[in-house]
């Protein structure tokens, strides 16, 4: 496996968010305008600007060739004014090799202080990477480290691992849901799912935390619907997410 | 022949009055009585249209249980169907809620009969009058014989037969009999006819007979709204009665001679789990009949572009008609931002149509009040961005020369001090090559090549150039000393050619004492560089066209010493 070929990435969330909001306001926009904006915000020479645009497309932030727009996911995040970190992790998760490297980098060097060359040596030790030209690797790692740094925050040193655990939860949840509902788009009592998930090893607190993540997840929440019933019918009790009580969950389509 | 394919076609001819009433209902989260549009829900539309069409063709009794969230559009659907079929004039439509059945002791079938009797009195009475008129009766038989013959012929109870006989006789008891048949009677009528109260089976028979003798060609449509009230509003006893009559009705309706009757029951999904447990606990048979008929209304997905677009277009068109106000149909994306913000902006899960519609109407009302359209808002935003771009894109107006000068000044600033002489050296090399000087290899004179040393020649002489980038006077003096050393070594090797030694340094490091040091060695020509001169030299090496090179050299006159020209001669 080769290190995923990402050569450029915005240095901070503020500049990325600025780019997204500009594109949002004037999309669809021509590639020339996109170049102008990107070079303006990131101040790169033209060949680097080109690579940055390409890489933003690769990560799924923007899309289109002659006419460029935000991707469906980015549009959703910008419309909801949601945390872009989550969008980045979500998009990275879709690219296997990139996700794998990002996760590993966080484990090897959580504070990202290692030089690219030393990091590469450790990556080689830790996984089955093909040996690559040091200069190319250095360039790729430079961009990937930027991406990793953007995704990290004080609570989540390894946001990629955390995301993987969350996705694991969703996969389990989907399985239990199907067992309970015998299909999609049926109301299932959340408390029943909670019991089933607790039997398979999750604590109630974990269940609640992950359900809150799902409820506020711009992407996966589009496949769900939460609803409440009157108290006299809520025999099993409610579950509280973001200060709201819910009784049923409906998963409309297959999540994975 | 009614075309059921067109049953759910949205209203094309919109009058301002109707729309205003519809929007006002929606604004207050009330389902409009005469809706003019239904969005999405293709599956439900297809199911209902197909069942109606079958029923119309006489293929059988149609039964649909419509479920959905609170505000999911159940009543909207019922109102739609009712208003459409009523307008058509070929059908009998009746609509009621479970709690209303209290007037008929919670019997669904009596309620159906009572409603038909009230809504379609003329048709109802003529159906039964005509029917009784045609009963074959032997004039000589006495009353009891006639009644027993009616019982036998029509397979009905004697109570019902007495009523038919009363109708047949057309006497003073006839109207009381018709009211009992129409389930709209009191105790007086019962006493008058001297019969016992009719039971549900009698009324089912009455429904069947009405269907057999009705004058309209269409079917009888029963719309039962808010079925869930059977659990929440009725006592256990009443609920059981209601369930039993429901079960009996659908059990018999499928066996009707003329099965031209359709029943749509709506039930809120929040009770779905309870519907199953409550109904199946008491009436397992009823539950097994309801379950296969359940058709579910889908919720509104705010993030689904098509669904969002459909709702947005319907409402914006209606605003145009109702208030002559153009919301800006071309900017659904702007509406989406407002919308997501309005509904909480945290989650993207599905919501009820009622919430979706009332929120979008709120936004439209707000914009209408501010006399703004989505287009205006979008334009304001793009203007902001455009202004930003114009301001920021100033550098593109800069000449190439200015751009290069900026780049080299940044390069100089950021360069490591060890690299700085090299930058000047390579720039000078380029200038010399372009000016037809030859570069001389220092190795030829046994001198090591460094980034501070440069040697060039023209036809007349050889020039040895020492480049200092020292920033302090002391270090400048040191460099000058080194320059002298190298000069001595070179001059010892060059015998036959004229030779110039040139010392380039940054003017910023120059002091009076350094100048006096320089004066002590007049055989070394010193050239001080101001920062702008330095930048011009560096910029030259980056210029990729002759015009640009020319432009750069316009502002910069190469020091004559550097051109290996003696001042005296030059002058």
Q: Can you characterise this structure?
A:
The complex is a heterodimer of chains A (256) and B (571). In chain A, helix 1 packs antiparallel against helix 2 (31-42), helix 2 (31-42) packs across helix 3 (46-58) and helix 6 packs across helix 7. Chain A has 2 domains: 13-151, no CATH class; 160-251. Chain A has a 3-stranded antiparallel β-sheet. In chain A, strands 4-8-5 form a 3-stranded antiparallel β-sheet. In chain A, strands 6-7 form a two-stranded antiparallel sheet. In chain A, a hairpin with a 2-residue loop joins strand 6 (239-241) and strand 7 (244-246). With 256 residues, chain A is mainly alpha-helical. Chain A has 11 helices and 8 strands. By secondary structure, chain B is of the alpha/beta class. Chain B folds into 3 domains: 13-40 and 300-397; 41-296, 3-Layer(aba) Sandwich (Rossmann fold), CATH 3.40.50.300; 400-570, Dna-directed Rna Polymerases I, Ii, And Iii 27 Kd Polypeptide, Chain: A, domain 1. Chain B contains 26 helices and 10 strands. Chain B has helices at 16-27, 42-57, 74-88, 108-119, 121-133, 143-154, 158-169, 174-181, 187-193, 200-213, 229-232, 236-253, 272-282, 284-290, 305-323, 332-342, 353-369, 374-392, 394-397, 400-414, 420-434, 473-493, 512-519, 531-542, 546-554, 567-570; strands at 62-68, 92-97, 220-225, 261-268, 294-296, 438-439, 453-457, 461-467, 498-506, 524-529. In chain B, the strands form 2 sheets. Chain B has a 5-stranded parallel β-sheet with strand order 2-3-4-1-5, with helices on both faces. Chain B has a 5-stranded mixed β-sheet with strand order 6-7-8-9-10, with helices on both faces. In chain B, strand 7 (453-457) and strand 8 (461-467) form a beta hairpin. In chain B, helix 4 runs parallel beside helix 10. The mean pLDDT of chain B is 87.
């Amino acid at each position: 496996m080769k290190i995923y070929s990402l050569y450029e990435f915005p240095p901070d969330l503020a500049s990325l968010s600025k780019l997204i909001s500009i594109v949002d306001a004037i999309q669809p926009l021509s590639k020339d305008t996109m170049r102008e904006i990107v070079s303006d915000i990131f101040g790169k020479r033209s060949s680097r600007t080109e690579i940055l645009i390409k890489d933003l497309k690769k990560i799924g932030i923007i899309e289109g060739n002659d006419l460029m727009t935000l991707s469906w996911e980015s549009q959703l995040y910008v419309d909801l004014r949601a945390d872009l970190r989550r969008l980045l992790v979500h998009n990275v998760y879709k690219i296997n090799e990139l996700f794998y490297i990002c996760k590993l980098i966080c484990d090897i060097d959580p504070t990202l202080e290692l030089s690219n060359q030393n990091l590469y040596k450790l990556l080689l030790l830790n996984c089955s990477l093909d040996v690559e030209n040091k200069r190319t690797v250095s360039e790729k790692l430079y961009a990937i480290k930027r991406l990793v740094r953007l995704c990290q925050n004080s609570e989540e040193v390894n946001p990629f691992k955390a995301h993987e655990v969350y996705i694991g939860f969703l996969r389990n949840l989907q399985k239990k849901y199907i067992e309970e509902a015998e299909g999609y788009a049926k109301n299932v009592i959340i408390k029943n799912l909670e019991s089933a998930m607790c039997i398979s090893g999750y604590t109630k607190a974990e269940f609640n935390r992950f359900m809150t993540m799902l409820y506020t997840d711009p992407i996966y929440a589009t496949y769900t619907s939460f609803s409440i019933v009157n108290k006299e019918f809520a025999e099993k009790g409610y579950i509280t997410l973001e200060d709201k009580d819910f009784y049923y969950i409906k998963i409309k389509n297959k999540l994975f | 022949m009614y075309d059921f394919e067109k049953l759910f076609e949205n209203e094309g001819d919109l009058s301002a009055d109707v729309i205003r009433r519809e929007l006002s209902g929606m604004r207050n989260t009330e389902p409009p009585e005469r809706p003019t549009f239904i969005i999405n829900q293709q599956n439900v539309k297809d199911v209902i249209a197909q069942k109606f069409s079958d029923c119309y063709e006489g293929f059988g009794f149609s039964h649909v249980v419509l479920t959905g969230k609170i505000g999911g559009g159940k009543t909207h659907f019922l109102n739609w169907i009712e208003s459409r079929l009523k307008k058509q004039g070929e059908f009998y439509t009746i609509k009621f809620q479970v709690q209303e059945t209290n007037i008929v002791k919670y019997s669904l079938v009596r309620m159906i009969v009572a409603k038909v009797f009230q809504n379609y009195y003329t048709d109802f009475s003529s159906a039964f009058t005509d029917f009784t008129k045609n009963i074959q009766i032997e004039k000589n038989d006495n009353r009891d014989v006639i009644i027993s013959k009616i019982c036998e012929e029509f397979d009905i109870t004697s109570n019902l037969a007495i009523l038919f006989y009363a109708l047949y006789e057309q006497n003073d008891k006839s109207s009381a009999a018709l009211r009992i048949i129409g389930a709209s009677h009191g105790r007086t009528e019962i006493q008058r006819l001297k019969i016992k109260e009719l039971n549900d089976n009698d009324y089912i028979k009455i429904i069947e007979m009405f269907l057999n003798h009705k004058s309209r060609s269409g079917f009888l449509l029963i719309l039962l709204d808010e079925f869930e009230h059977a659990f929440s509003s009725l006592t256990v006893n009443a609920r059981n009665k209601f369930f039993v009559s429901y079960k009996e009705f659908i059990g018999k309706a499928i066996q009707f001679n003329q099965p031209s009757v359709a029943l749509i029951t709506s039930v809120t999904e929040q009770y779905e789990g309870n519907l199953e447990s409550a109904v199946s606990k008491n009436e397992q048979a009823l539950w097994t009949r309801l379950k296969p008929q359940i058709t579910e209304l889908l919720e509104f997905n705010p993030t689904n572009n098509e669904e969002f677009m459909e709702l947005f277009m319907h409402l914006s068109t209606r605003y145009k008609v109702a208030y002559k106000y153009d919301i800006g149909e071309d900017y659904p994306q702007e509406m989406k931002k407002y919308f997501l913000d309005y509904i909480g902006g945290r989650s993207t899960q599905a919501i009820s149509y009622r919430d979706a519609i009332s929120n979008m109407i709120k936004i439209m009302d707000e914009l209408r009040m501010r006399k703004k359209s989505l287009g205006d808002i979008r334009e304001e935003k793009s203007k902001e961005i455009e202004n930003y771009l114009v301001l920021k894109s100033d550098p593109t107006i800069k000449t190439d020369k200015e751009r290069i000068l900026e780049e080299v000044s940044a390069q100089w600033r950021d360069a490591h001090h060890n690299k700085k002489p090299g930058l000047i050296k390579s720039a000078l090399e380029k200038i010399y090559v372009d000016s037809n000087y030859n570069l001389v290899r220092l190795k030829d004179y046994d001198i090591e090549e460094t980034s501070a040393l440069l040697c060039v020649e023209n036809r007349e002489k050889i020039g040895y150039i020492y480049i200092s980038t020292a920033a302090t006077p002391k270090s400048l003096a040191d460099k000058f000393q080194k320059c002298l050393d190298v000069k001595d070594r070179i001059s010892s090797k060059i015998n036959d050619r004229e030779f110039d030694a040139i010392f380039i340094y940054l003017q910023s490091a120059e002091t009076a004492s350094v100048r006096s040091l320089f004066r002590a060695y007049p055989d070394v020509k010193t050239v001080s560089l101001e920062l702008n001169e330095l930048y011009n030299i560096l910029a030259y090496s980056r210029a990729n066209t002759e015009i640009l090179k020319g432009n750069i050299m316009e502002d910069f006159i190469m020091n004559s010493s550097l051109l290996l020209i003696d001042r005296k001669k030059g002058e």
